[in-house]
């Protein structure tokens, strides 16, 4: 096929993204520097000068980071196991791993409310076993958000990891062992560096997903605001579109910074990756 | 001196038995090949010795110690994989240095030893390249260097040449033999290619269905296969079932129906009681019809069914009262299909197999 024809195939997608994504983002970013008829940075100085806003931002980033690490810790062993199975059982196991993605986040958040609440399963068990004499506050805390988000994003991490792990030849691991490496050492020096591309993709997807998630923190976080629920509140409840735009731009900036940092870390750990 | 001994070893995957009651001895400094078709258990035997899988029953002794349950990383064996298994994220230098670093060798020693071994495999100057940037033959050499640099007690090759093209293969074969003899490392070599095994080995073990059918010097196996399986595997395409045998003065007389044959009795062919004869297509002689009639010892009348030109020679499939025989013969004027011919079985080429 001729090159021009191939470029033509890109056109519909490009047009759609250009009109409905690039232009609105550029306009949003532009609008944050223009307030009351003058060019200004006041939106950002106002935001970063306010300790309440900073606390929301910090909570969001910390919650997202913990969620990412938890997904990685829980997802890696699972993904490694799945990647070592035959094609047939791999398909079945992956389908099971992905299954939670098919249920709505609202339904899942409600289930967590039942499990984590003051009269929920976990607190019943804790009080019943005598581990604490009164129920713990789990629901409507950042912990609840982390639990909900981990549940939500674990399948994505598993899929990303299986993708790279299944391409790591088992002979590499046994070759390393035959050369004197312990299991742990073979993992650290062979499996981990070769899995880095998948770890980075999985981590970026989970982190960005957690950073921008709305339903789960809205339902499980209670009064605890995260940046997306805070954005919604400003835009819809307080009608402060200027501050809402500033928040949106900050979210985009954080996303880019984190993705950039992760890529750089991956390059340093695995120069050929 | 026997370095390595497998004593009645059995291996099973689930309910499937791969090796059954296998016994094997390897002498120090020798190169022993395991030869056989896929699924015969040769790779399983190698992996068992390497420590990648464990025997269900039996013992593996190495230099007098029990290695049956010894972990892979404590065995000090060098392994060259069929896929080479080079670490793709490491340079040639780091690949070769891996084993030394795992042994906490001083970095200055690592440098000099890696440099020296890369010269042994003719790869000096390739230290900073990555596996992706090397040809198949070069990767093979890196894999060998990586296995050699740790000064292994045993070197294991798992079909190391099967991913190379024919030219490189014969070159690498010579190279492997040279390195092995130069360093005097006891080596176990697995392949399904008989030419490869015969050309580099001190001894060859031919395996079938998890058992060793014959273990001997390559020349002996080539001339005197012990069993029908071995004979078939190394190119004896013609078999005869005899009904009677008698032996006197170094000659074995054989009878198949009304046809009589003789075979020279020597250590390789006198398998007592064996009633199956085998002969290579190259050794079977096709002659124009013999007027002396039936009953001439060592000859069998037949009709040419298929005549194929092989370049150097013609190949005939000849139908006889004792079945079809394949014979290769160099000749100027070939026999045609349908022609009556006589097959002659030279007594020194006809061997008896179990």
UniProtKB/TrEMBL annotation, chain A:
<feature type="transmembrane region" description="Helical">
    <location>
        <begin position="55"/>
        <end position="80"/>
    </location>
</feature>
<dbReference type="InterPro" id="IPR000515">
    <property type="entry name" value="MetI-like"/>
</dbReference>
<protein>
    <submittedName>
        <fullName>Putative spermidine/putrescine transport system permease protein</fullName>
    </submittedName>
</protein>
<dbReference type="GO" id="GO:0055085">
    <property type="term" value="P:transmembrane transport"/>
</dbReference>
<dbReference type="GO" id="GO:0005886">
    <property type="term" value="C:plasma membrane"/>
</dbReference>
<keyword id="KW-1003">Cell membrane</keyword>
<keyword id="KW-1133">Transmembrane helix</keyword>
<feature type="domain" description="ABC transmembrane type-1">
    <location>
        <begin position="57"/>
        <end position="262"/>
    </location>
</feature>
<keyword id="KW-0472">Membrane</keyword>
<keyword id="KW-0813">Transport</keyword>
<feature type="transmembrane region" description="Helical">
    <location>
        <begin position="138"/>
        <end position="165"/>
    </location>
</feature>
<dbReference type="Pfam" id="PF00528">
    <property type="entry name" value="BPD_transp_1"/>
</dbReference>
<feature type="transmembrane region" description="Helical">
    <location>
        <begin position="7"/>
        <end position="35"/>
    </location>
</feature>
<comment type="similarity">
    <text>Belongs to the binding-protein-dependent transport system permease family. CysTW subfamily.</text>
</comment>
<feature type="transmembrane region" description="Helical">
    <location>
        <begin position="186"/>
        <end position="208"/>
    </location>
</feature>
<dbReference type="InterPro" id="IPR035906">
    <property type="entry name" value="MetI-like_sf"/>
</dbReference>
<keyword id="KW-0812">Transmembrane</keyword>
<feature type="transmembrane region" description="Helical">
    <location>
        <begin position="241"/>
        <end position="262"/>
    </location>
</feature>
<feature type="transmembrane region" description="Helical">
    <location>
        <begin position="92"/>
        <end position="115"/>
    </location>
</feature>
Automatic annotation (TrEMBL), chain B:
<dbReference type="InterPro" id="IPR013611">
    <property type="entry name" value="Transp-assoc_OB_typ2"/>
</dbReference>
<protein>
    <recommendedName>
        <fullName>Carnitine transport ATP-binding protein OpuCA</fullName>
        <ecNumber>7.6.2.9</ecNumber>
    </recommendedName>
</protein>
<dbReference type="GO" id="GO:0015418">
    <property type="term" value="F:ABC-type quaternary ammonium compound transporting activity"/>
</dbReference>
<feature type="domain" description="ABC transporter">
    <location>
        <begin position="4"/>
        <end position="234"/>
    </location>
</feature>
<keyword id="KW-0813">Transport</keyword>
<dbReference type="GO" id="GO:0043190">
    <property type="term" value="C:ATP-binding cassette (ABC) transporter complex"/>
</dbReference>
<dbReference type="GO" id="GO:0016887">
    <property type="term" value="F:ATP hydrolysis activity"/>
</dbReference>
<dbReference type="InterPro" id="IPR027417">
    <property type="entry name" value="P-loop_NTPase"/>
</dbReference>
<keyword id="KW-0547">Nucleotide-binding</keyword>
<comment type="subunit">
    <text>The complex is composed of two ATP-binding proteins (OpuCA), two transmembrane proteins (OpuCB and OpuCD) and a solute-binding protein (OpuCC).</text>
</comment>
<dbReference type="InterPro" id="IPR017871">
    <property type="entry name" value="ABC_transporter-like_CS"/>
</dbReference>
<dbReference type="InterPro" id="IPR008995">
    <property type="entry name" value="Mo/tungstate-bd_C_term_dom"/>
</dbReference>
<dbReference type="GO" id="GO:0005524">
    <property type="term" value="F:ATP binding"/>
</dbReference>
<dbReference type="Pfam" id="PF00005">
    <property type="entry name" value="ABC_tran"/>
</dbReference>
<dbReference type="InterPro" id="IPR003593">
    <property type="entry name" value="AAA+_ATPase"/>
</dbReference>
<keyword id="KW-0067">ATP-binding</keyword>
<dbReference type="InterPro" id="IPR050093">
    <property type="entry name" value="ABC_SmlMolc_Importer"/>
</dbReference>
<dbReference type="Pfam" id="PF08402">
    <property type="entry name" value="TOBE_2"/>
</dbReference>
<dbReference type="InterPro" id="IPR003439">
    <property type="entry name" value="ABC_transporter-like_ATP-bd"/>
</dbReference>
């Amino acid at each position: 096929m001729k090159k021009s024809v191939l470029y033509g195939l890109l056109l519909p997608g490009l047009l759609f993204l250009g009109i409905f994504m690039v232009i609105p983002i550029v306009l949003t970013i532009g609008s944050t520097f223009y307030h009351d008829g003058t060019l200004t940075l006041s939106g950002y100085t106002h935001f970063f000068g306010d300790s309440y806003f900073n606390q929301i931002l910090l909570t969001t980033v910390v919650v997202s980071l913990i969620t990412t690490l938890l997904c990685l810790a829980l997802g890696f062993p699972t993904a490694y196991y799945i990647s070592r199975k035959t094609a047939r059982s791999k398909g079945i196991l992956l389908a099971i791993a992905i299954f939670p993605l098919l249920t709505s986040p609202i339904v899942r958040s409600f289930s967590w409310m039942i499990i984590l609440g003051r009269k929920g399963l976990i607190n019943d068990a804790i009080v019943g076993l005598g581990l604490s004499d009164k129920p713990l506050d789990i629901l409507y805390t950042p912990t609840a958000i982390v639990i909900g988000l981990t549940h939500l994003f674990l399948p994505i991490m598993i899929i990303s990891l299986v993708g790279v792990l299944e391409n790591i030849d088992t002979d590499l691991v046994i070759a390393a062992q035959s050369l004197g490496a312990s299991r742990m050492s073979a993992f650290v020096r062979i499996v981990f560096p070769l899995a880095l591309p998948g770890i980075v993709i999985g981590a970026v997807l989970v982190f960005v997903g957690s950073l921008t998630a709305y339903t789960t923190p809205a339902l499980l976080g209670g009064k605890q605001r995260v940046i997306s629920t805070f954005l919604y509140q400003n835009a819809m409840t307080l009608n402060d579109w200027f501050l809402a735009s500033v928040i949106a731009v900050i979210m985009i900036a954080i996303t880019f910074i984190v993705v950039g940092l992760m890529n750089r870390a991956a390059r340093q750990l695995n120069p050929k990756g | 001196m026997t370095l390595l001994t497998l004593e009645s070893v059995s291996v099973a995957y689930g309910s499937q038995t791969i090796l059954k009651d296998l016994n094997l001895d390897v002498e120090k400094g020798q190169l022993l090949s395991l030869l056989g078709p896929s699924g015969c258990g040769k790779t399983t035997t190698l992996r068992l010795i390497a420590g990648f899988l464990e025997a269900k029953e039996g013992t593996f002794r190495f230099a007098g110690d029990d290695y049956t349950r010894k972990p892979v990383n404590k065995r000090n064996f060098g392994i060259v994989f069929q896929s080479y298994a080079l670490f793709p994220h490491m340079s040639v230098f780091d690949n070769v240095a891996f084993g030394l670093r795992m042994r906490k060798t001083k970095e200055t020693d690592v440098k000099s030893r890696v440099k020296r071994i890369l010269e042994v495999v003719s790869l000096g100057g390739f230290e900073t390249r990555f596996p992706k940037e090397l040809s198949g033959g070069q990767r093979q050499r890196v894999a060998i260097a990586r296995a050699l640099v740790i000064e292994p007690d045993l070197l294991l090759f798992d079909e190391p040449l099967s991913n190379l093209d024919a030219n490189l293969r014969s070159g690498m074969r010579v190279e492997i033999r040279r390195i092995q003899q130069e360093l005097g490392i006891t080596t176990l070599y697995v392949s399904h290619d008989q030419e490869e095994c015969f050309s580099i080995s001190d001894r060859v073990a031919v395996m079938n269905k998890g058992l060793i059918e014959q273990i001997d010097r390559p020349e002996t196996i080539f001339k005197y296969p012990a069993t029908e399986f071995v004979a078939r595997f190394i190119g004896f395409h013609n078999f005869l079932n005899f009904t009677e045998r008698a032996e006197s003065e170094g000659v074995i007389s054989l009878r198949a129906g009304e046809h009589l044959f003789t075979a020279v009795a020597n250590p390789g062919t006198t398998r007592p009681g064996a009633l199956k004869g085998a002969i290579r297509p190259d050794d079977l002689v096709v002659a124009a019809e013999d007027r002396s009639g039936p009953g001439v010892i060592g000859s069998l009348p037949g009709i040419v069914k298929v005549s194929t030109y092989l370049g150097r020679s013609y190949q005939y499939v000849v139908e006889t009262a004792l079945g079809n025989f394949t014979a290769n013969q160099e000749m100027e004027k070939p026999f045609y299909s349908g022609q009556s011919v006589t097959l002659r079985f030279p007594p020194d080429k006809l061997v008896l197999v179990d």
